[in-house]
Amino acid sequence: MRPLKRAVLAGLVFAIPSLYAAEFSSHREPLEPLSMEVQLGVIATTGNTDSSALKGRATIKQDFRTWKNKYEFDALYKRDKHDGENETTAQKIFLSAQSDYKLSDENTSVFIFGSYTDDRFSGYDYQNTLAVGYSRRLFSDQYSFLDYNIGPGYSFNSTDAGGKEDVIIMHIEAEYEYNFSTEVKFTQMLGSDVAVEGNKNTLSKSESAITARLRDNLSMKAAYSITHNSEVFDEREKTDSTTSITLAYSF
Q1: Which burial class, exposed, middle or buried, applies to 150 when counting CB atoms under 10 A from its CB (0-12, 13-18, 19+)?
Q2: Of 200, 150, 188, nearest to 171 (Cα)?
Q3: pLDDT > 70 in the chain, percent
Q4: CA distance readout (Å), 120 to 49, 96, 124, 166
Q5: Cα–Cα distance between 144 and 93 in angstroms, integer?
């Protein structure tokens, strides 16, 4: 892994917690319950077509007295066999971390966000984003809520051909959840790193999902995800989509 990649990953892991280290020294409030969800899905076919796919995801959330944090890891790997030879047809890794400083009891905060994307077949060697901004919950009731984040940021990317691209962006993200019952919920996530300059790449993502609880902390999740790059290379497709069914365990 190149030094720049190592620096970005290290920053995501260590930089954000350091922002509130000083607060811990003066406010020894106990940590509220930490939550984590791990998802895993496996698909394998044999016979006329041999293929295997693995999709994994982990989400960690923390909630302190004046801070809240969210860490995400998402990965997809797929191999197919053609004419007796194995070929990797999908390989994606996404890492992100966000830390919010709470402004009031009305679900408003300021945030700092960082992400790292490595999609082997996108034409980009890596895509990184850093952003700061404002977060708010637009509405909330016993069944649903809608949150959004918005703020300026900076994207620095590298292409497979070795080219570099530094872009000023506007980071926008929205998350909606609706609970049909205590057992079934619908979630919708929309996010985009919008390039300020018209000839630069805008990276957008979407995920629509239905989650049904099977028992206790175990659930099944069906999701449809879309990734779109406004600028691509070597006549690649601008949009990738993934349909997945995974088991999710929360604790």
Answers
A1: middle
A2: 150
A3: 84
A4: 23, 18, 7, 20
A5: 30
Task: Say if residues 95 and 52 touch (Cβ distance below 8 Å).
Answer: no
List all residues 6 or more positions away from 28 whose beta carbon is below 8 Å from its beta carbon: none
Residue 145: both structure tokens together: 């809520």
> What is the DSSP code (8-state) at residue 4?
H
User: Residue 161: what residue type?
Assistant: A
**3 state SS of 230:** coil
Residue 154, helix vs strand vs coil: strand
Q: Smallest Cα–Cα separation from 163: which of 127, 187, 199?
A: 127
Q: Please choose, from the candidates 244, 237, 2, 243, the residue with its C-alpha nearest in 3D space to the C-alpha of residue 122.
A: 237
Radius of gyration in angstroms for the set of CA atoms belonging to the chain, rounded to a whole number: 19
**Is pLDDT above 60 for 14?**
no
CA distance 98 to 114: 7
Token pair for 146? 């809608």
Joined tokens for residue 186: 């619908």
Q: CA-CA distance, 41 to 62, in Å (whole number)?
A: 25
Which residue in 158, 177, 175, 179 sits closest to 167, CA to CA? 158
- Tokens 């999710």 appear where? 248
Task: Render pLDDT for 16-75 as a digit per residue (tens, 0 to 9).
Answer: 444 444 344 334 444 556 899 999 998 777 766 678 889 999 999 998 888 999 999 999
Start-to-end CA span in the chain (Å): 32
